Amino acid sequence: MAFDLYAISPSGAVQDRTRMERAAARLADAGIGVRFDRTAFSRAQRFAGTDAQRAAAFGRAAAQRAPVVMITRGGYGLTRYLDALDYEALAASGKKWVGVSDFTAFQLAMLARAGAVTWAGPALTDFGAEDGVDGTTLDAFGEAMRGELEVLGFGYSGPKDVEARGTLWGGNLSVLCALLGTPWFPQVRRGILFVEDVNEHPYRIERMLTQLLHAGVIDAQSAVLVGQVSRYRLAEHDRGFDMPAVLRFLRGRTRTPILAGLPYGHEMPCMTLPHGAKVSLATEGRTCWLRLPHAH
């Protein structure tokens, strides 16, 4: 079943318009029509237009006819105008809001302020690489938008015999920690928290996870899923301090199961997950099964 999507740029300015147009053409080949917001290619300093312009794009996206709204790219900038958005109205539009990275700020705010489900998934730029499209990412996105993605299985590392149920929430770890203590941070208990990050050294990942631990967020969850943590460079004096060491440290300080291997983040494949939805999780051998709500 084909569908259309509306592309907005809520954070950083688009650096490569050709890549976006290439992504739109590839999605069209897959039966997904793309229409760009009129300010999608705007620029103000490093941002895709002024804060007011980027905030106004959410209103246009909510009013137009396409059922799916996807970000062109991440970057930085959404936290500058979180107080300018009407979350109840955006939730009432019934749109499927999709994105990754800096879009975590909007997803968390939608959950905190409106109790709304959004979609943690790829950005449009992920479909525009010169070397082609990751088929798993594209298929999962299409299935999720059509309400056909019910179970996600992936290889994982961590404790065995884990079962959990709760609200699936989280996203980019840096953005998540930046909202801690603000009105846009959801108060989720017994949920399933997922995190990912890019270009952050493992010690920074550990520092942010420790912040969530000391704030009581991790102990309040039924499980934590660690996605892709990538594109960092170790130093000689790290002497074996890498992500496995971070996870060992965290697991030694909480009873909450920490499971690593979720295919979500800034690398491919990147699954499309219903942020804010009730899900269940179970491990079998070295496979973790995430059961999503039927038809979401």
Short description:
With 296 residues, the protein is of the alpha/beta class. It contains 8 helices and 13 strands. The chain has a 7-stranded mixed beta sheet. Strands 2-1-3-4-5-11 form a 6-stranded mixed beta sheet, with helices on both faces.
Protein topology:
Blueprint (H helix, E strand, L loop, with lengths): L2 E6 L8 H13 L2 E5 L14 H13 L4 E4 L15 H6 L3 E4 L4 H11 L3 E3 L14 H11 L5 E5 L7 E10 H7 L12 E7 L3 H13 L8 E8 L12 H9 L6 E3 L12 E3 L2 E7 L2 E5 L5
Parallel strand pairs: 1-2, 1-3, 3-4, 4-5, 7-8, 8-9, 9-10
Antiparallel strand pairs: 5-11, 6-13, 7-12, 12-13
Helix pairs in contact: 7-8
Can you put this structure into words, describing what you see?
The structure is a single chain. By secondary structure, the protein is of the alpha/beta class. A seven-stranded mixed beta sheet has the order 6-13-12-7-8-9-10. It is globular, with a radius of gyration of 18 Å. The chain starts with a strand and ends in a 5-residue tail after the last strand.
- Overall pLDDT: 97
Number of helices: 8
Q: Could you name the ranges where pLDDT drops below 50 across 5 or more consecutive residues?
A: none
For the biggest sheet, the summary is:
7 strands, mixed
Measured distance between first and last alpha carbons: 16 Å
- Morphology: globular
Major sheet: arrangement of strands: 6-13-12-7-8-9-10
SSE string, helices as H and strands as E: EHEHEHEHEHEEHEHEHEEEE
Radius of gyration: 18 Å
Share of helix among residues? 25-40%
Report the β-strand fraction as a percent range: 15-25%
The structural class is alpha/beta
Number of strands: 13
